[in-house]
Design goal:
Aspartate Aminotransferase, domain 2, about 400 residues, three-stranded antiparallel β-sheet, Aspartate Aminotransferase, domain 1, globular
Length: about 400
């Protein structure tokens, strides 16, 4: 075959998708897998939402199956502007919204729009695994700020100031974070915004889990500045609609003018049916649905955290205040067993039929951790999953 393009060597494939493919294979063979790997909520969308959307699709099938404008249908952008303004306290107009095919499309579009070869991009390590390879594909110079459980996976303001300079084009923060479950302090967010302004950089602020807080509240970067910040959001998390592939960005009109022009060449428009179900969710179901799922997810989080503390006392683990994930450090066990987090995760899946994601997939700062989604399964299955993790470690240490 022809030689692949330069840069594709960085796009090795997501470890999350690789684990998911192995889970699908096992389930195809009739194996019952405890799914603690994939980053989606373990609840279905609101039944009322599905019923109403089904009626709407029958009544307006042509309209809901047609092309839309590239930045999304006007009604949805109006609803998103109202909703974001209400929660953030920042006055947002429909012209500040662009609807995307999930936030993944937004990440790629932002890179295509703003990154030139050699531009510096500042990332946290560990963090969401899509960012680094995409920036490397566009030949950016990636500079990482290491975080760990000692600082609750928060970079210090001083760490950010040391690496951000006039050569920086983009700073990327994920809050709440995937995979660590950390929430960034307002001081860190404000520092990042100030650095973006001072260095004419763009702060890409991924806030996919902003509504899934169990303690505390979300810090909105757009409160500090509306010109140098692009907020990334998705309908995959709190509405529980990951397969519909719907997201949106909130940004300055000048940023979106170029963003939307580039976006036409990636995807003519976001999926039209998904836009209408997103609109229904915002208008009629969001508030009640979030109220319903937060207690469920909090109970599941506590079950996993308490099980990890009880069954793996040598593991270091932070209780997440938000999001879907807990990120235990199993170094004490894995080093004694002579196995790394990737080998352990694969053996856990094959031998114990529990899916987790190896922490090293999110950067070398995640080595010997595993990412566990504590919302995907009911409490009893989550506890059993942690028991199976402990059982495998006991067997490995007994060898």
């Amino acid at each position: 075959m022809p030689r692949p393009a330069n840069g594709t060597e960085y796009l090795r494939g997501s470890m999350i998708r690789e684990v998911n493919a192995l889970v699908d294979q096992l389930e195809g063979d009739g194996v019952d897998v405890i799914k603690m790997h994939i980053g989606q909520p373990g609840v279905p969308p609101s039944s009322g939402l599905i019923d109403e959307f089904t009626r709407l699709l029958r009544e307006r099938a042509f309209e809901l199956s047609a092309y839309s404008s590239t930045p999304g249908i006007a009604e949805l952008r109006e609803a998103l502007a109202e909703d974001y303004s209400r929660y953030s306290g920042v006055k947002v107009q429909p012209s500040n919204i662009s609807v995307t095919t999930g936030s993944s499309e937004a990440i790629i579009t932002l890179a295509m729009t703003f990154i030139n070869p050699g531009d510096k991009v500042v990332l946290i390590n560990p963090t969401y695994l899509l960012y680094k390879p995409i920036m490397q594909y566009f030949n950016a110079k990636v500079v990482e700020v290491k975080v760990s459980i000692e600082n609750e996976f928060n970079p210090s303001p001083e760490d950010l100031k040391r690496v951000v300079d006039k050569g920086t084009k983009m700073i990327i923060l994920v809050n709440p974070d995937n995979p660590t479950g950390s929430t960034l302090s307002s001081e860190v967010v404000k520092t990042a915004v100030d650095l973006a302004i001072d260095n004419d950089a763009l702060l890409v602020y991924d806030e996919a889990y902003r509504h899934l807080y169990y303690e505390g509240e979300h810090t909105y970067a757009l409160r500090y500045d509306t010109h140098n910040v692009v907020a990334l959001n998705t309908f995959s998390k709190d509405p529980a609609l990951p397969g519909w592939r719907l997201g949106f960005v909130v940004a300055d009109e000048q940023v979106l003018e170029v963003f939307n022009r580039v976006k036409q060449y990636i995807n003519i428009n976001p999926p039209t049916p998904a836009q209408y179900i997103g609109l229904l969710y915002l208008r009629r179901y969001k508030v009640d649905f979030i109220k319903e799922v937060i207690p469920v997810f909090r109970e599941r989080r506590d079950a996993v955290y308490n099980s990890l503390r009880a069954l793996l006392p040598d593991a270091r683990v932070m209780k997440p205040k938000a999001g879907l994930f807990i990120f235990p450090d199993l170094s004490s066990y894995l080093r004694r067993a002579g196995i790394n987090d990737l080998e352990f995760s694969l053996r856990l899946l094959r031998e114990e039929h529990v899916g987790v994601v190896p922490g090293s997939a999110f950067g070398d700062g995640g080595v010997n951790h595993v990412r566990i989604n504590f919302t995907r399964e009911p409490v009893d299955r989550l506890r059993e999953g942690v028991e199976r993790i402990a059982d495998l470690l006991k067997r490995l240490l007994a060898l």
